Amino acid sequence: MLSELRYRLRALFRRDRVETELDQELHFHFEKEVEKYVRSGLTEEESRRRVRLAFGGDSQIKEDCREARGTSFIETTLQDVRYALRQLRENPVFAVVMVLTLALSIGANSAIFSVIDSVLLHSLPYRQPEKLTRIFMTSEAFPRFPLNPFDFRDMRTRNRSFESMAAYTRSDMQLAGSSGDPIRVNGFRITSGFFHVLGIEPESGREFDTNAEIPGNELQVILSNRLWHTHFGADPKIIGRKITLNAQPFTVVGVMPPGTAHPGNEYHAVSYGDDVDLWSPFAFEGDPARRGSHYIEGIARLKDGVTAATAQAEVFSMMNAIAHEHGDDMGHWRMLVVPLDREIVGSSRQMLLVLLGAVAIVLMIACANAANLLLARAAARQRELAVRMALGASRTRLVRQLLTESLLLALTGGALGLLLALGGVKGLVSLLPSNFPRLHEIHVSTPVFLFTFLVSSVTGILFGLVPALQASRTDPRQSLHEGGRAATGSARMSRLRDALVVAEVSLACVLLVGAGLMFRSLLNLLHLDPGFQHQHVLTANLWLPSAAYKTSPERSRFYEGLAMELESIPGVSSAGLGSDLPWTGWDDNTSFSIEGRKPPPHQDFGARYHVATWDYFRALGIPLIRGRFFTREDNANRPKVIVINQALANLYWSKGDALGKRITFDDHPKDSDWLTIVGIVGDVKDKPESTNTHPAFWWSALQTPFSQMSVVVRANADSQALTQAVGAAVHRIDPSLAVAEVQWMGEVADATVATPRFAFVLVGIFAGLAILLAAIRTYGVIAYSVSRRTPEFGLRMALGAQRMDVLLLVLRQAAVLTLSGAVLGMVFALLVGHVLKSMIYDVNPSDPLIFSAAGVFVIAMALAACCLPARKATKTDPMIALRAE
Amino acid sequence: MGDERIDLPQGTLDLLILRTLAVEPQHGWAISERVQQVSSDVLRIQQGSLYPALHRLERRGWIKARWGTSDNNRRAKYYELTRTGRKQVDVETEAWHRLTVAVGQILESM
């Protein structure tokens, strides 16, 4: 065994030596044989001639000896690789196109698959994440509505479906900086057992117990690992330390491990991920009998064997019972229990699946292209293969040779593809909107890369092999006789090639239509009148700590002062303060009574509420329809007023009637409890892609000042200077306030179209790629056919055909292929369009304009690709062409 | 070269080479000459089969090669049996005898 190994190693590594020895040995044999003949009386010359005749070629013997040495596998492979490299060097266009095709398909596929794998397939970083569910109330108008805290508490004690339940609500805090300005941190108030539900243990300390839910015990805090590092220097003795939040002393009871992911929420949304800085206890304050306000969201872990649907039914019957106990009923409200993963990935799921479809189409086209290239090449090489077979190469040897070539291409393509995938994933992540679910978890996944690599290589190998087998089956004599020309065009092969072209053109059509639909949708979104003007508007967020701003007058003084400070900044044309900004997900609603009207049974009058200072609307560019905006005089000393939007005006009053009408929030209002409608403003779309506007009204900020406020400054000024000026204005009034989320309204607006733009850009790139590949393909097939038909054209021209006739002849062939491809593609696209329906805004999925444009474009591209070979055909010189025959 | 020459049955070439080398170390040409002589010109080993066979036997470790000088002072590659090679000669010879006896019996009895 060992000696055999030694022998083989020597044979392999001392190959030259072994070969020389073999030469010498054979030479010795030759000489001895000659000697023998000479001894028998022949002349030296005659002897040599005879021996040489008897010997035949040395090379076959040497080859057999190599085989016998057992190293031929490696040697032959090396030889094949060298040969393949030489072949590819001779045919650089083929090699480059093949490698690029493979690289692109492997790279693009791995990148998209990686995103999908990270976002859709990887489980969430919680214990048994499939058992986690979110709990909402739901109705037609409010698909995901938060819960009332006391309702939640009752459900928690009664439920049988869940192993554990918790609730949470957004509650940002102001952290007194150890150095310099105070900062705003993302915070949530959570009930006891919140992390237990998620299945995450604090890294040190503990989470809140039920004691913390009792009012008065809420000055406790759990820190995120990030905040612990960035602001507390990873102090190991942090547990038990007091830190100042919202100007109050909070005791640190726990620090979470790194990467503790927020499960995402709806109300004042923070999307899924590691974006929360700290958690404080949720205390059940107030009167449990009053259950009108809804602002906490439920999360719960299902018991073993209980489905979300069962739990939803149970939660609904519980809520019905609870409502009845409080003399109320659920009306049109239902309960919603959604698996957490579906909630997090939600609408992105569909976009990713559409992208997956797009990339699969590109992969198919690329594979078809590769197959076609290999087929054409094999046909062109049939003569070469025939020669080699005639010289004694065995069939397996030829197949191996061609396989080596295919593998070489596949490996090179794969390596390039990996680079593309790495770059591609980075590119994709940077293109994705920042609130995209699980954005930071996206990375190139190894199994995914291996999978795509395998798919592409197998395609390469398969199609490299099929023609190899076919070629090796042909009779070498025939191929050689016919000059290698006729043998290239077996009818079956050319039918296969034509079918591949038709398939590619049709797939390209599908992608182009998809890209067209998305582009129209994007244009619609961009040109949508949002109901306000977002250009030149700088925004920021502020929050007044309740410890420092206990009373309404204190807060309204701040509002008034800051609004005036902002107005006086040079370059500012108007400035205001409001509870929120458009398109940021603010969705706080209330019910009210209208003077002299009774609501329909089981219903209330209701609307979304906001707060605004006198110039808020002007600063945002929201137009006044009737009546007036607020003024500085609409303060606490004056009769209460509201401004409503058109949607609310149209909902409860007929045209223009709303002005001067009064509403109230009290069951037994005094005269001062009534609010008069003084103005109607234009509708601002809820979201950029929503067609309607939720009915809403605004309180005057000087009468109902909230702690949470957004700054809106319309100015033609340099961004940095303006940002500094706004910060300075705030700090002139209160230096302890943190100014957060300073950004241009344009960025807010941009962020909302980021996802559709992302989808369009990608599908557009894929469509471009597909068309390019299809055009190259068409070019290849037509050029090939022209080169084969040159004698025919020559003959036709010799018989009197004009150049035009020949041109038409070629173009007709191309037109048949591309037209059938386009028609087929349109049919597919009609089917695909319906899948896209939910992703496109205000576009008919079978829009005739887009369909015809896509069709014309694809056909034009394909025909353009044929122009070159068609022109070549018309230049055929009949004499040369006929002589070649 | 007569018509009486017969093709070597599969596997016998190795046995003939090994048996020849069992007498004394030889170079390739001598092996084929020897087989031809001893078989009275009936068996003839073509060099196209001889050298691959020698390489195969060398790989199996049954023979080993060394360079020596031939009768007229030319460098030649001499093959000799290894220890396992010697055992192999016995094994193969034994197997061959059994085979020929068995084949003979069948041919006689029918």
The largest contact between protein chains, plus residue counts on each side, is: A-B, 26 and 20 residues
Q: N-to-C terminal Cα separation of chain B, in Å?
A: 33 Å
Q: Approximately how much helix is present in the residues of chain B?
A: 55-70%
- CATH architecture label of chain B: Orthogonal Bundle
Largest sheet, strands/sense/barrel of chain B: 3 strands, antiparallel
Q: What is the strand tally of chain B? A: 3
Would you report the number of β strands of chain A? 23
Q: What does the largest sheet of chain A look like?
A: 10 strands, mixed
Indicate the topology.
The complex is a heterodimer of chains A (885) and B (110).
Chain A: H1 2-13, H2 15-39, H3 44-55, H4 58-69, H5 72-90, H6 92-121, E1 132-138, H7 149-158, E2 162-170, E3 173-175, E4 183-185, E5 187-190, H8 194-198, E6 204-205, E7 220-223, H9 225-232, E8 242-245, E9 248-255, E10 278-281, E11 297-302, H10 308-325, E12 334-339, H11 340-380, H12 382-390, H13 395-431, H14 446-473, H15 476-481, H16 491-527, E13 537-543, H17 552-567, E14 572-578, E15 589-594, E16 605-612, H18 616-620, E17 624-627, E18 641-645, H19 646-652, E19 662-664, E20 675-681, E21 696-700, E22 708-715, H20 719-733, E23 740-744, H21 745-798, H22 803-836, H23 848-874, H24 878-884
Parallel strand pairs in A: 5-10, 7-9, 16-21, 18-20
Antiparallel strand pairs in A: 1-11, 1-12, 2-5, 2-11, 3-4, 6-9, 7-10, 8-9, 13-22, 13-23, 14-22, 15-16, 15-19, 17-20, 18-21, 19-20
Chain B: H1 12-23, E1 26-27, H2 28-38, H3 47-60, E2 63-69, E3 75-81, H4 83-109
Antiparallel strand pairs in B: 1-3, 2-3
In short:
The complex is a heterodimer of chains A (885) and B (110). Chain A is of the alpha+beta class and 885 residues long.
Keywords:
heterodimer, A: 885 residues, 4 domains, 10-stranded mixed sheet, B: 3-stranded antiparallel sheet, 4 helices, 3 strands, globular
